Structures are given as C-alpha cells and as structure tokens.
Amino acid sequence: MKKLTSFLCLAILITGCSSSQNKNKVKSKIASDYAETITAAELKDMLYTYASDEFEGRKTGEPGQKKAVNYIKDQYIANGIPSPISKNDYFQEVPASYLRSGFNDSENVVAFIEGSEKPNEVLIISAHLDHIGISKNGDINNGADDDGSGTVAILEIAEAFQNATKDGNGPKRSILFLHVTGEEIGLFGSRYYTDEDPIFPLKNTIANLNIDMIGRIDSKHESKPNYLYLIGSDKLSKELHKLSEAINKEFTKLDFDYTYNDENDPNRFYYRSDHYNFAKNNIPVIFYFNGTHVDYHQPSDTPDKINYEFLETRARLIFHTAWELANREERIKLD
Prior knowledge:
The structure is a single chain. With 335 residues, the chain is α/β, with parallel strands linked by helices. The chain has a single domain, classed as Aminopeptidase (3-Layer(aba) Sandwich), CATH 3.40.630.10. It is 40% helix and 15% strand. It is built from eight helices and eight strands, in the order αααβββαβαββαβαβα. It has helices at 2-35, 40-50, 63-78, 144-166, 188-196, 238-252, 275-279, 308-327, and strands at residues 91-94, 106-113, 118-128, 173-180, 205-211, 227-231, 255-257, 285-289. The protein has an eight-stranded mixed β-sheet with strand order 1-2-4-3-5-8-6-7, sandwiched between helices. Helix 2 packs across helix 4 and helix 6 crosses helix 8. The protein is globular and about 70 Å long.
C-alpha cells in the first residue's frame, strides 16, 4: 500500500511538472510569435524617415522636433494604440519655463495599453525623441542612433503588444510607451514626468526599460558584435537583473556587457539617460545601450550606418523582457 501511494504521488508530481513545462512552452511560443513581428525592414523604413533631414535634427522645441512628435503620434494612431491622457491627445506638454533658458515649449509623447488583470500596475518603456539640431555650419545632426534607434524600437514594441492585445493576449499589467523630450539638454522630459506630472502614480510603476542608442556597434565589440551594454539592472532589484539574464538566455543570447554598470566607471552613464529620473524614485530600471562611436553627436550619425538586424534582435530582447514583467504573477521586487 505504501509503495502504491508513493507511486501515485510520484505520478501526480511528474504530471504536474509536465503540465507546468507545457504551459511555459506555450507562453514562450506566444511571446516569440509577437516578437517576430518586430522586423529589421519596418525599423529601417521608420528610421529613414525619423532621422531624415526633414526633421532638422529634432532640437528641443524647434520645428523639426514638432515634426518628430507628430510622426510618433501618427504611428500610434495608425496602430490603434490610445493615449492615456484623452482621445487623440498624445502630448504631455513641457513648458519652456521648465526647460533650460532659450528653449521653446516642448512635449513628451505618450501611448498606453491597459492591462487586462492588473491595470493599475504600470511598466514604462522609454526613449528620448530629441537630438541636437543643426550645427553652426548648417549641417543637420540626424541622430539616427541617438536616439532614433530607441524611438523606432519602442514603436515596433508597442505594435507587437497591440497585436497581442487584438488577439486576446494583451499584457496583464499596463504599459506606458513614453517618448521624452529634452534629454540632450539635461533629461528634462523624463524629469518633468517623474517630478511634475506622472500620468500614473510612481508607486504603481513597476519598472522602467529605457532605450538610448541600440543600432550600432562600438569599437570594443567589432570582432564580436552580438552584444549590448546593460546599465542599472541590478542597482535596485536583483530580481530584475536575474529576470533580464534569463530572458536573454532563452530568447536572444546576446553578450551582455556590464562595463558601464560599474559605479566607478568614469563615463557615469547610469546618471546620463532618462532611466535615472525613475531610478532616483526607487523604480527598478534597465538602460539598454550600444556604447558611443565616432559618429556620436555628429552629422554623420545617419540611418545608413545602423545595423538593422542587430537593432531587430535588441528590440526583440526588450519586448521579451517587457512581456515577462507585464505578465508575471508578482510585480518585480525592489531590494
């Protein structure tokens, strides 16, 4: 009788484990199907527009930046992704009085997919929409990598989540797609969101995934270009760091480089992009970055220099990480 009971317990345990494994495989397959809608071709098509001369280098508050925010807005409208502010109002106004002296009124662009089970918990995916404008000699700084690459990556990630939502596989938690202005002049757009007008309470914000330059290869990695720098993933939540590593191992297998995550790194990149305004409010962050290159802040940062296959893989990594954060049972734990 004892042997039979033991056998039945073992059988139930094996069946339960098998069922759990099958469910995980199904979940992974669903996520992968939507990740595959993020393509190099679509990223390239958008970036050749977004980083074109028409946008005049997207300097904060200038006409080219206004064209840029309207381009982003039109992409969200075309994909049926709503604004969290009000119908067709995708702009969070950032007044000139908040910006550095000499700059005009500007705006963040926001879009939103509401969670199906935990709508009050919000994941924020961010990138800055501005760049440095036109040089004194008249050359346009197109900013294809900085941060056109992050901008179009968010648009593709948002579209993938919207496709999932249409199919009844929308995220359990809400996702805010946040394109911030004024990064190049001092992280003003993200600071305005966190310090002045958080559309959703910061206490309900589970994490921030920030994308700033993910379309190029730096000199250090020319021989092994299947890489990405990650900054901040372990600063506030070891659980987020472990999750990030596990997602990469399962889906994209990039070589993560944590050089710039070192507190003693002289570049201090942890403090130099928009994720920092969330981190200072005890919100776990990951900053995705390909490192600097000879075209950084130069007119030569053009869309023809982008490696679109790498941009596709990196955007898919961020989508998978966001998918897990938005759909796991418990929100990520703060250390």
